[in-house]
Write a structure and sequence with these properties.
The chain has ten helices and 17 strands. By secondary structure, it is α/β, with parallel strands linked by helices. The strands form four sheets. Strands 3, 4, 5, 8, 9, 16 and 17 form a seven-stranded mixed sheet that branches. The longest helix has 14 residues, at 128-141. The chain is globular.
Length: 320
């Protein structure tokens, strides 16, 4: 079968022939129609992820066909019995197990769900990892309610955009930040009320003047800018971060945090019940993930370069 295999670090995976997954009791082989990229795939290819093994087929997101039915795959594996936190053996499809960047992928049968009927394969492939991460951050961790004000940082990435779509569907007033004016405009086209560039020196003051502060803030960067998020949080605000692309958090003002009764949550992916709830939410509100571009497996270098440079708005998808 055709697959994207991690052959060498610091290079994109290569499109090559790989053996079909072996038949294993309790597992099924899903025929992949479309598979979406995540930053995780880029980090793995650059050696910036634990447990990397060469020869692995990358890819966490996928939609395809099983037994003649259109399906979508839950990439969150071996979460465990505690819905609050994953167990030590938890991992994500695509490392160390072979992932979705192939014509077939082997997964546990209970990780396969009916594809939301209103989505095509490309749109469905863009949903699982980003949708699950955004759903847990917004609803399980932050307890988002209709009418609340939400700030989503770094809009343009898959999780941030899903959080934007989910929050709008839930009846929240959504604002975004980005370093690109055109990404802010696109987010407004999706239902966000407004946004600011985090490159502006006084972006926090602008947002406070416009909104009065945010009940929920969803962030993926952390770093020194995280302290500014505390400033724009409303009293009793909840901040959830699911990534740390800008490194360690410095400069937090503890007085500001405790006086405003701020809650800070870390979050990653989600459990099986949250994945099912996320699919129900997507189907109920007819939410369509944002797809940036679609590539053949042979164009893997172009796809990885586009994500590495941060040019995308939405998900980059391979079709098989």
């Amino acid at each position: 079968m055709k697959a994207l295999v991690l052959d060498e670090l610091n290079k994109p995976p290569v499109c090559s022939e790989a053996p079909l997954p072996e038949a294993v009791e309790g597992k099924v082989n899903v025929r992949i129609k479309a598979a979406a990229m995540n930053h995780r795939d880029v980090w793995i290819s650059k050696g910036m992820y634990p447990g990397i093994r060469q020869g692995v087929i990358l890819g966490s997101d996928g939609a395809g066909v099983l037994d003649g039915k259109d399906v979508i795959i839950n990439p969150s594996l071996d979460w465990g019995d505690d819905p609050r936190v994953q167990q030590k053996s938890y991992h994500i499809l695509g490392l160390p197990t072979n992932g979705t960047f192939a014509e077939y992928v082997s997964v546990d049968r209970n990780k396969v769900f009916a594809k939301p009927a209103h989505l095509n394969f490309i749109e469905a492939a863009a949903l699982p990892l980003a949708g699950l991460t955004a759903y847990r951050a917004l609803f399980s961790r932050c307890g988002l309610k209709s009418g609340e004000k939400v700030l989503i940082s770094g809009v343009g990435g898959g999780v941030a955009l899903m959080a934007c779509l989910f929050a709008v569907a839930a009846g929240a007033e959504v604002w975004v930040t980005s370093g690109s004016a055109w990404k802010i405009k696109k987010a407004q086209d999706l239902g966000a009320k407004g946004g600011v560039s985090y490159k502006d020196e006084a972006w926090d003051k602008t947002l406070l003047k416009e909104t009065g502060g945010f009940d929920v803030i969803i962030d993926s960067a952390a770093g020194d800018g995280f302290a500014t998020l505390v400033k724009v949080a409303a009293p009793a605000g909840r901040i959830c971060f699911y990534g740390g692309t800008r490194g360690k958090i410095n400069g937090l003002n503890p007085q500001l945090m405790f006086w405003k009764q701020i809650s800070v949550f870390g979050s990653t992916m989600g459990n099986d019940a949250e994945f099912e709830s996320m699919l129900d939410f997507v189907s109920e509100h007819k939410i369509v993930p944002v797809v940036d571009s679609v590539y053949s497996p042979e164009a893997v270098n172009e796809a990885f370069e586009r994500m590495s440079k941060g040019l995308q708005f939405g998900k980059i998808v391979f079709t098989f």
